[in-house]
Every structure is written in C-alpha cells, then in structure tokens.
Design a protein that fits this description.
single chain; Jelly Rolls; Arc Repressor Mutant, subunit A; about 30% strand
C-alpha cells in the first residue's frame, strides 16, 4: 500500500470500503503539498474534491462588495472543493493558512462514477456533506441572531474545540489568523475585533500574541 492510499483509507470518506474499493479510488486521487498563502482550490477551475491530510485551510468567499468572508476553517480530515450542495453564486476559494498543508485531490467526474458503483461511498460522502452543511447553517444563524461579541466568543469556542490544547487550567490555540481574518469570519471590522480582544484581555479572559491565543480557564470556552 502506497502512502497516498494509506491516507485515503483513514478518511471517513472510505469507511466500510473494501481494500479493493479504496485501491480503485486511489487511482483517481493525487497527493499534493502547499505552503502558506497558496490557493489550492478556486471555484470555476477543474472540478475536484479534496481531503485535508495536514495543516489548516480557510474556505473564503468574495462578496459582491468585494470583501472577503471566511466561511470555514478546515482541519485534517475535512472535505472541501466542488460540493454541489454548497454551491454559491460568489467566487469561492480555499487558501492555506498554516505554514504547510498536505491534501488529496480527487477528480470529481470520475468520483461521481464511483458513487454510483459503491453504495457505502455514497453514504459516507453524503454524511460528510450533511455535517458540513449543518456547521455552515449554524454559523449563518449565529450571524443573524447574535451580537458581534457573542459571535466572536462562539468562533473561539468552535476553534478551541477543534484545535485547543489543555495545559493545566488553560486552553491554548496556535494563532495563525490575523484580526482581519477573524473579522471576516464573524462579519465585522478588524477594528471591532481588536477592541473586543483588548476588552477580553483586560478582563483576564484571554492572552494573545501572533503565535498563540491562551484562554485563562476552560469555562470561558463554553460561553456563547
């Protein structure tokens, strides 16, 4: 088994598939590496789906106003790319935000053929797409029902659940997002994010710099 197939076999997408079925899927899959700031997918290009092996990737959309809106932060194991359920009329792209990232790219047209042939693959794919859609739906609801500070706290909570490391009575996140990135995730201005972060810092809830964000207690993570 080559390295690419080993990674493919460990994704939720291939759960309950036989070794032969994974091997067949591996034939239409390529492994790629990327650096910080590199766009690995853009809407309108060659149709593919992607599976993130390592690193972090942001899914962003350019609104009609020309502003960027970060829709999602992807972690290893996540699916992205040409997912029809999540089509948007705006320009969408995936950009590496960590120092490096590694991912699998699968030709979408060939993949559709496999979906018809392998029922277990179809179930896995639809489950992953459904879970992604629910996360985006929750984020949208938060945008229209919560104030900016609450949206920021929810963003931190979601981020910490995925990546946070508990160190004693603290939770630490590696910080690879700028204030502008955070602002585009919660639909506000960079200046507003800076003001709220300073308020939280003065209150003793967080400590942050360019490298990491440190939460003073685990209970803070559960605020919404």
């Amino acid at each position: 088994m080559d390295t690419k197939q080993f990674y493919l076999k460990n994704f939720s997408l291939t759960r309950n598939l036989t070794d032969n079925q994974v091997s067949d899927l591996n034939q239409i899959t390529v492994q790629r590496d990327a650096r910080h700031g590199e766009v690995v997918y853009a809407k309108g290009g060659e149709k593919k789906i992607f599976l993130l092996i390592s690193g972090q990737v942001k899914i962003a959309e350019i609104k009609e106003s020309g502003d960027e809106m970060i829709k999602e932060l992807l972690q290893p194991g996540d699916l992205f790319g040409d997912i029809s359920v999540l089509e948007t009329i705006n320009y969408e792209y995936a950009e590496v935000v960590s120092e490096r990232a590694s991912y699998l790219a699968i030709d979408f047209n060939a993949f559709q053929g496999y979906l018809h042939q392998v029922p277990a693959l179809t179930v896995n794919y639809l489950t992953m797409v459904s879970e992604k859609f629910k996360r985006l739906e929750t984020r949208y609801v938060n945008m229209i029902t919560k104030d900016v500070k609450s949206r920021l706290l929810y963003c931190f909570r979601e981020w910490a659940v995925k990546e946070g490391k508990k160190l004693g009575d603290k939770v630490v996140l590696r910080n690879y997002l700028t204030h502008g990135d955070i602002a585009s995730m919660i639909s506000t201005s960079r200046q507003t994010v800076t003001v709220i972060l300073n308020e939280l810092k003065e209150a003793g809830h967080i400590n942050y710099n360019r490298r990491q964000i440190e939460f003073s207690d685990v209970a803070f993570i559960h605020l919404s």
